[in-house]
Amino acid sequence: MRANPEPSDGDLVIAARAGDGAALGLLLARHRPRLLASALRLLGYRADAEDAVQETFLAALRHLDAVREPAAVGAWLHTVLRRACLQHRRRPDALRTDALVDVIDVVDASAGPDERLERADLRDWIWGALQRIPEPLRVAAMLRYFGSYDSYDELAAILGVPVGTVRSRLSEVRRKLSDALLAGRLDDGSRARWRARERCWLDAFDDIVRRGASDPFVSLLDPELLVAWSSGATARGRHHLAAEIESDIAAGVRLVAERALTTDGVTVVEGRFVNPPEDPTHCPPGIALVLFGGGGDDRASRVHLHLAPRAPRPDD
Fold first, then answer.
1. Concatenated DSSP letters for 133-202?
2. Both 302 and 201 in a single domain?
3. Same domain, yes or no: 44 and 105
4. CATH number assigned to the domain comprising residue 209
5. Are residues 18 and 161 in the same domain?
6. Does residue 169 share a domain with residue 268?
7. Per-residue pLDDT of the chain (316 residues; tens, 9 = 90+)
8. Which of 56, 150, 193, 203 is most buried (CB neighbours < 10 A)?
9. Dihedral angle, C-alpha 114, 185, 71, 84, nearest 10 °
10. Where does the chain have alpha helices with state H?
């Protein structure tokens, strides 16, 4: 009998859920050859097969707590892989939803993805990994996997880049993020800092609604803020944004923030407009802001602003 028997899949799943990055790495490495072989049979093209396996890993990292029987994680991984491969086989001009999002249909539908993340504290793990990848990739991942405006067209509009650039960035995210996740969970200091920053932005928006005061929000912006609208227009100076807010307040428009997502140097805020009854089309239904800078006591130095034809999903 061996003194140190190799841990079972079930043992590795339980350890990974408890935050053991080494256990998670061993689990994924153990199943990678079979997953890649299956993907190659289904897709026939190695680059697509590699992408499908990376998407499967990313889905596993986010939804590992949804596996009802830890010992059967191999079958669960292959189910996710088949879904990822089906997405890759769609027509190239179709918008593609990758396995990280689509896996929601595979696992327990009674709980939302955020609920499952918080249940096992995996959300913080993912946010810690996001901080380890380059900023352009991080922003794309934050919007795609945690925001409301998550189609390739919407991401392209928000970020002011072509759809092809969005696709390539998300493909790179899937390659880099699965490795970054194995580096461990978010540390307590970063967690506290990011949560405080999210609260700061949400409170600033709340002041606009409750008190009709834009000053708390504007104070979070650098005076020389670069504003880039998804229409392609740009302007220098936070007074441009302040003027828009004051105009909306005067018109009786309310702006309700639904969510704020923060890492060091990048914040995403999504909100919905509530127009007055006498002017129901004054503002579009939704708004998304991607703010760069603003880490620690610094003010945001650049913002991408997208006026959306639909309101964001309410934060759960």
1. S-HHHHHHHHHHHHSS--SHHHHHHHHTS-HHHHHHHHHHHHHHHHHHHTT-PPPHHHHHHHHHHHHHHH
2. yes
3. yes
4. 3.10.450.50
5. yes
6. no
7. 344 578 899 998 898 887 776 788 788 888 888 998 898 888 887 777 887 887 888 778 777 878 889 899 999 999 999 988 887 776 453 334 444 444 333 334 344 444 444 443 556 667 777 888 899 999 998 898 788 888 889 999 999 999 999 989 988 887 777 666 666 566 667 778 888 889 999 999 898 888 888 888 999 999 999 999 998 999 999 999 999 999 999 999 998 999 999 988 899 999 999 999 999 999 999 999 999 986 555 799 999 999 999 999 876 5
8. 56
9. 60
10. 9-17, 21-43, 46-63, 73-88, 99-102, 113-120, 122-130, 135-146, 152-159, 163-181, 188-211, 215-218, 238-250
Q: Give how many domains the chain has, as a whole number.
A: 2
Which residue range is the domain that position 216 belongs to?
A: 188-308
Q: At 54, is the secondary structure helix, strand, or coil?
A: helix
From 146, 181, 216, give the residue that closes a domain.
181
pLDDT at 179 (0 to 100): 66
44 vs 22: CA distance, rounded Å: 31
Question: 115-150 burial string, b = 16+ CB within 10 Å, else e?
Answer: ebbeebebbbbbbbbbbebeeebbbbbbbbbbbbbe
Q: Do 133 and 195 fall within a single domain?
A: no
Measure the CA angle with vertex 255, ends 213 and 149; round to 5°: 140
| 2 in any annotated domain | no
Based on the domain organization, do 74 and 217 belong to the same domain? no
Question: Are the CB atoms for 166 and 152 separated by under 8 Å?
Answer: yes
Residue 70 resides in a domain: yes
- 213 and 94 within one domain: no
**21 lies in the same domain as 141:** yes
84: helix, coil or strand? helix
Give the per-residue pLDDT at 128: 75
Partners of residue 307 on adjacent β-strands? 287
